[in-house]
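retry 2 of 3: previous attempt timed out while embedding (~{Z})-2-methylbut-2-enedioic acid. Reduced batch size to 1 and resubmitted. Inputs unchanged:
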Amino acid sequence: MTDTVVLPPASCLTEADIAPGLDLVAEIGRLRKERNAVILAHYYQDGEIQDLADFVGDSLDLSRKAAATDADVIVFCGVRFMGEVAKILSPGKTVLIPDAEAGCSLEDACQPEDFRRYRQRFPDHVAVTYINCSAEVKALSDVIVTSSNAEAIVNQLPADKPILFAPDRHLGAYVARKTGRELALWPGSCIIHEQFSERELIKLKVRHPEAKVAAHPECPDGILKHADHVGSTRNILDFVLGSAADTFIIATEKHIIHQMEKAAPGKTFLAAPGADGGCDCASCPFMAKNTLEKIYLCLRNDAPRIEIPEDLRVEALKPLERMLEMSRSVPMSGASRNAA
Ligand code: CIZ
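retry 2 succeeded.
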């Protein structure tokens, strides 16, 4: 597998070099200006990171931002594949990520060599691949999708074309149900959405009978069948903001609740529970690797930095451009722009 991250050299600053009491938010603001940088943050990032970002959104909206920005430097606060997408779309920009170890269980579950062999088993299938995968798997795919546009893109594929969908089998099964298409499903899943417990969810619903359940399609069907609404992060956000209900159970990574609480401070948002009712199951350990200290350091050190071999980038760009083209009908969300 290609390593697409350039790590900071040994001579670079580390957390131990950060002066105690340094105002990190102010310093990040100063460096952002000095370097003409834009900070993009996924909805699954910690609230303090969402609050200092220039834009907060899902991977579709942030990909669009990365493709359109006139900044010289993109700091991508999310997980590694999101930084790769920014670099694939904006090769002339410096793309920094706060932590090189911020991976994704879906990416891990779909190694390029295995995916290449899988494709050989289905030579006549269109490979529709979720954006949560490596640059190499993208390069082996026909079209990339996110949870915001997967249904719209599959609906545009010719009815007689068989489809394989990787790497999230739950999202694939959901799209198959919504579109009526038969999809060959790669057997991957997200460790966060997979951990929600149907039994504990039912117990929570009994304690909050008035609550509406909003779930992400990466959840297993046992969770989705209890949902009042199923959608991508931004779609769930739109749902709760547009709903007359006051209490919601949110079955996706819990940091999206930060945007909900900001936009609807009078409403109550409960994170869906895992099997052990008390565990912090709705928090992604990969997303949690990013911190203010690491954002500051990546701007100071110019690393970790995404670098992608040009031949790989060009191949991975094709299905991403196809996605952007085929999702023109999916409107740009209100990806939050924080005040500068
Ligand atoms: O597409 C994304 O950004 C992810 C990972 C989830 C969502 O629904 O937005």
